Amino acid sequence: MPEPSNGYSVLIVEDNEMNRDLLSRRLSRKGFEVTLAVDGVDAMEKMREHDCDLVLMDMNLPIQDGWTTCQLIKDEPQWSHTPIIALTAHALTNDRERALIVGCDEYETKPIDFARLLEKIHRLLADKAVSPA
Ligand code: MN
Questions:
Q1: How far does the centroid of ligand 1 lie from the alpha carbon of residue 57, in Å?
Q2: Could you tell me the distance, in angstroms and rounded to a whole number, from the CA of residue 55 to the centre of ligand 1?
Q3: 62: CA distance to ligand 1 center in Å?
Q4: CB 104 within 8 A of CB 84
Q5: Does residue 79 contact residue 55 with C-beta atoms inside 8 Å?
Q6: Could you read off the pLDDT of 20-53 as tens digits, one per residue?
């Protein structure tokens, strides 16, 4: 049984349909309003159309990769405080470091440990709530 809305909206940027659907269903069940994007350019469009509180960003994306997209989002003043969690394909230290360099607030390695991801989401949203606009 799904929980009632928790008032937060999350943008999931993921080109793999199975991963996207799985994350979407699990977050919806936790009360998040979910918006989906399938590549980096689509992500930018969805950011403009929706007021997303947090972004889950797959790094390996077609058209425009997650690193570039993360940097472009963080460069926009209206989104610079929007938390981004990078989803990296493997536990490569280089991938994590690159994600943090382009402005991602956190990273999670695939396969996703959903309980741990949820903790990170809640922590970032709580931090955001107390930080100045
Ligand atoms: Mn991908």
A1: 9
A2: 15
A3: 7
A4: yes
A5: no
A6: 999 999 999 999 999 999 999 999 999 999 989 9
Q: Per the structure block, which two tokens stand in for 7?
A: 């008032």
Which region, left, alpha or beta, applies to residue 12 given φ > 0 means left and ψ of -120 to 50 means alpha?
Answer: beta
Using a CB cutoff of 5 Å, list residues around ligand 1, an ion: 15, 58, 60
The count of other CB atoms within 10 Å of the CB of residue 41 is 16
**CA 40/CA 105 separation, integer angstroms:** 18
Predicted local distance difference test score (pLDDT) of residue 51? 83
pTM (whole model) above 0.90: yes
Q: Check if the beta carbon of residue 56 is closer than 8 Å to that of residue 12.
A: yes
**Distance (Å) from CA 59 to ligand 1 centroid:** 6
The predicted pLDDT at position 133 comes to 46
